Amino acid sequence: MEDFRFQNSTDIRFGKHHIDEELHDAVAQFGQNVLLTYGGGSIKKSGLYDRVMKALAGLHVVELSGIAPNPKIDSIREGQKLAKDHDIDVVLSVGGGSVLDASKVIASAKFYDGDAWDLVADRGSQSRANIDQLPVVDILTLSATGSEMNAGSVISNPELNVKLGTYGPKTPAVSFLDPQLTYSVSKWQTAAGSFDIFSHLTEQYFDRSTANDVTAGIIEGMMRSVIKWAPIAIKEPDNYDARANLMWGATMALNGIARSGNANGWTVHPIEHELSAYYDITHGVGLGILTPRWMKRALSAETEGKFVRFGREVWHLTGDNDHEIAEKAIQATYDWIKSLDIPMTLGGVDINTDEKFVEMAQEAVRIGHLDQGGGYVNLTVDDIVALYQASSTVEGFE
Amino acid sequence: MEDFRFQNSTDIRFGKHHIDEELHDAVAQFGQNVLLTYGGGSIKKSGLYDRVMKALAGLHVVELSGIAPNPKIDSIREGQKLAKDHDIDVVLSVGGGSVLDASKVIASAKFYDGDAWDLVADRGSQSRANIDQLPVVDILTLSATGSEMNAGSVISNPELNVKLGTYGPKTPAVSFLDPQLTYSVSKWQTAAGSFDIFSHLTEQYFDRSTANDVTAGIIEGMMRSVIKWAPIAIKEPDNYDARANLMWGATMALNGIARSGNANGWTVHPIEHELSAYYDITHGVGLGILTPRWMKRALSAETEGKFVRFGREVWHLTGDNDHEIAEKAIQATYDWIKSLDIPMTLGGVDINTDEKFVEMAQEAVRIGHLDQGGGYVNLTVDDIVALYQASSTVEGFE
Fold it and tell me: Where would I find the Alcohol dehydrogenase iron-type/glycerol dehydrogenase GldA domain in this sequence (chains A, B) (predicted)?
């Protein structure tokens, strides 16, 4: 097990009965000037906007709407200006991971005088570590990114075709997690979000440390929960247990617990981020297409033990033939993703050309240090081009 | 899944390389006046005391030593006086759960003018919620209680034959967890500590909520880790991986994560606390003796599903006969505890009379509300007397 530090102070309010009673005080404890951030009009249609405004009665609320999926740097710049102009004390983010990711960077940008992109482009986030950051309170409406209990954000810069992770020192101050708010999430977004959760777990499970059974066991339990409940949530959108297990699973998958003591190197995320950056596809769907191909590539004599464990503990595979169990586990993963109605090829998300494969692979390698120990197994540009190519066909899986 | 709140701000420094470099600043961030608490002389023999004093150079250090296992109220009273007399800013606890439990109550008692027992006897801990609490920094030397990342303490009052749980509002500010410091823990204490961890997990796993698969899965993973590593730590005291998995497992088992969304009622702990209070036996050993008997009593048509899951996911039992799997899971638990060289009867810890069984059972029921929905299954005084009796023989297990 590796040495580590862990601290996460986010105040979680999970369940049906927190928002109306507690939202006002949770926000007002930080001040009177509130920047309310959200995406499209869905929170107005659902009535959530009215509930929020009622709870905030008496506070000075400034609004920033229109934050898009794969949030763009322009929204951050706009939020930066509003936060400065109105001397904002606290950001209230209502929406999914994209709105929250943007809000966390805006919370830093209030204290930065240059272009907000500087805070993202600086991958070590030193620029953000050295400035203050507003508290962020959030009401989550999508189970996926885990942004509600971590310090990370993924921000896109469309002019540069870049999508980068950036880390504020602070995790959200208070996160309201009401699974009922995800009843209206579409089948497509439920599938994508569920696989995003699963991908966060695989990225941390397949790690280079050894003998960390606490964390491995915790991850296996969370994987089984997503595998069980994602298809149910897709079939029965109002199933509270399904929505609740996905919501808490999303949070727990990426709050630091699942990497404790690991020697992690994320691989599939940087490879997928290029697809999203170049083609603006749904992140979780891109991960779903890439992951089984990456698993096949990562399986070797050296890594077989971890895949066997994955097969036995997560997929309940039995038998004496270890290699067969490892391969069956990858196939089971593929079959499960497909059962969520995620299209299993790049063509299924309208990427029908390989013209950008080399360019994207070069970027993924550069950003993720994937050929220099940055991932679970080393991958070269050629390897990643091959992964994109393998993702263009169902060969080997169907 | 039940509604819940979760927040835990403890700053964990896990591994080999934190203490010497980081201890001074971790303590001094809270002030100059330090109350150093510890137990017997073992930290002097091991050299840890010298390392700590070196790191604290320049700070004003007051010492409170002699804090015993099952910590007694007299130590709290002594600490309260020292904390007031020396205007202590921060408590540094060096030792196992007992020292830490005492330190957390002393941290409150500094701000209380009456007898410190009032802060314990008030089971709702309202008296502590309404006063301040000093920050506690700790260096853990035993993997067991989880006290390093929760707000709880268990304090004994020998005059009253009472052992009670009390909760400060604060969890420790900083916990240094170096598995190497547990190399010198005896086989007996390693076994007892490991079963304490396992018991914390079973108390939270067997809960009345349904469909909380995230938490159930997390617990199952942690259980498998304890089952695997406890026997190794007993056989090879210097095995870093074994000590590390037990240490992080102990912390994670009782930091709030494993009860998230559950409808918990602890049962075996209040029943064991009477044994410790009356006979001063090792807590984890008492739990080890009682738990398999309690499981047999708790197994019914209504609870069978959970025991079957326990058998399949934790003990890897297979087959179609659910009832058989449930029973085998309980037997496997018994066999594993026995393999740790825990004596499996009350006679093994020198309790050779049943004269106090009724009195202890009455106390356990009263304190744990065990006949009124306080536990996983309701237990009457007669039920608990029967559990103590069943714990006096190996009948049914060997």
Answer: 10-179
B247 and B136 in one domain? no
Residue A161 lies in a domain: yes
CA A37 to chain centre: 19
Pair B269, B129 in one domain:
no
Distance, in Å, from the CA atom of B199 to the CA atom of B254, rounded to the nearest integer, reads 10
Residues of chain A positioned with their CB less than 8 A from the CB of B8: 8-9
Neighbours of B63 (CB within 10 A): 14
pLDDT at position A123? 74
A166's enclosing H/E stretch is strand A162-167
pLDDT at A323: 97
pLDDT tens digits, one per residue of A302-359: 999 999 999 999 999 999 999 999 999 999 999 999 999 999 999 999 999 999 999 9
Question: In a 3-state reduction of DSSP, which class is residue A31?
Answer: coil
Kindly tell me if the per-residue pLDDT of A293 is higher than 90: yes
Task: Answer yes or no: do A266 and A381 share one domain.
Answer: yes
Q: Which of B214, B241, B245 sits opposite A245 (nearest CB)?
A: B214
Where a domain ends, among A142, A162, A181? Answer: A181
Domain that holds residue A142: 11-181
Question: Is any Cβ of chain A less than 8 angstroms from the Cβ of B253?
Answer: no
Q: What is the pLDDT of residue A345?
A: 98
Q: For residue B193, what pLDDT is reported?
A: 97
What pLDDT, on the 0 to 100 scale, is given for residue A145?
94
A338: contact with B, CB 8 A cutoff: no
- pLDDT value, residue B109: 97
In angstroms, rounded to a whole number, what is the distance separating the alpha carbons of residues A342 and B287?
Answer: 48
A154 and A17 together in one domain: yes
Q: So what's the pLDDT on residue B20?
A: 94
How far is the CA of B209 from the CAs of A246, A383, B264, B266, B318, in angstroms? 17, 47, 8, 13, 25
pLDDT for res A388:
98
Residue B7 confidence (pLDDT) = 98
Q: Are residues A176 and A235 in the same domain?
A: no
Across the interface, whether the CB atoms of A14 and B261 are under 8 A apart is answered: yes
Q: Is residue B358 part of a domain?
A: yes
B245/A212 CB distance under 8 A:
yes
Percent of chain A with pLDDT over 90: 92
Q: CATH number of the domain at B379, please.
A: 1.20.1090.10
pLDDT at residue A93 tops 90: yes
Q: What are phi and psi of B21, to 5 degrees?
A: -80, -30
Interchain CB contacts (distance < 8 Å): A and B: 147
Number of domains in chain B: 2
Q: Do A169 and A226 fall within a single domain?
A: no
Which chain A residues have a beta carbon less than 8 Å from that of B223? 217
**Distance (Å) from the C-alpha of residue A35 to the closest C-alpha of chain B?**
24
Low-confidence ranges of chain B (pLDDT < 70): none
Same domain as B150, residue B99: yes
B372: which 2 tokens?
A: 């009124």
Confidence at A277, pLDDT banded by 50, 70, 90: confident
**What is the three-class DSSP state of B358?**
helix
* CA angle in degrees (0–180, nearest 5) for B85-B89-B92: 100
Residue B220: the pLDDT is: 98
Residues A4 and B244: their CA atoms lie apart, in Å, by 12
- Mean pLDDT over residues A264-272, rounded? 92
CA torsion, ordered A49, A50, A54, A57, to nearest 10 deg: 60
Inside any domain, residue B155: yes
Residue B297 has which token pair? 């009593």
Q: Which of B10, B214, B315 best probes binding to A when mutated, by most A CB atoms within 10 angstroms?
A: B214
Q: How many C-beta neighbours within 10 Å does residue B248 have? A: 27
Residue A396 covered by a domain: no
Residues B177 and B300 reside in one and the same domain: no
Read off the pLDDT of residues A105-139 as tens digits, 9 standing for 90 and up.
999 999 999 999 999 998 778 899 999 999 999 99
